[in-house]
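Consider this one:
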Amino acid sequence: MFWFWLPPLGYMVAIFFLSSLSNPQIGGDTPDYILHSIGYFVLTLLLIRLLLAEQPRLLVNLTTIFSGSKNTNNALFFWNIASLAGVLIAIIYGITDELHQYFTPGRHCSFNDLLANSFGAFMAYGISMLDYLVIYRTSFQKRLINRMKWLGVISYANYVASKPGFHFTEFRLSQK
């Protein structure tokens, strides 16, 4: 669905645009590494959301390849693959963005920025795994989401569970 693709792609375009400016005035006195960490934290969350919501077949295939087994019942492994794929995409995008800055007048390519980007991406990985462990894997999920409806909107588990033909608890794709 278009709505899952739009936020990460739009965010990547915004990062590219800001990187192409010679002297962007963003953040005021906030250190550069904080801005990079926050930026790539958000990008990675959007990418993980996209992968979990739109690409379950691809992720089941990746899970099968990496686990060496056709048994795709390992939900935690599946979730981990999706989260790590989001981290990897964000880090690769961060590398290309730093290379882009190298060719932009007034900007420079920095290894410290790459580290900050990676740190933000791995923080998003931690949040994703926390979502899986606390929200999805416990009976706490239904009570919490029933009381606080807004959590259903931000939880990755609900995006995956809403996919037709995909049974999240079993991690099997129906043949329909």
Helices lie at 2-19, 32-54, 56-67, 75-102, 111-136, 140-147, 150-154, 156-161.
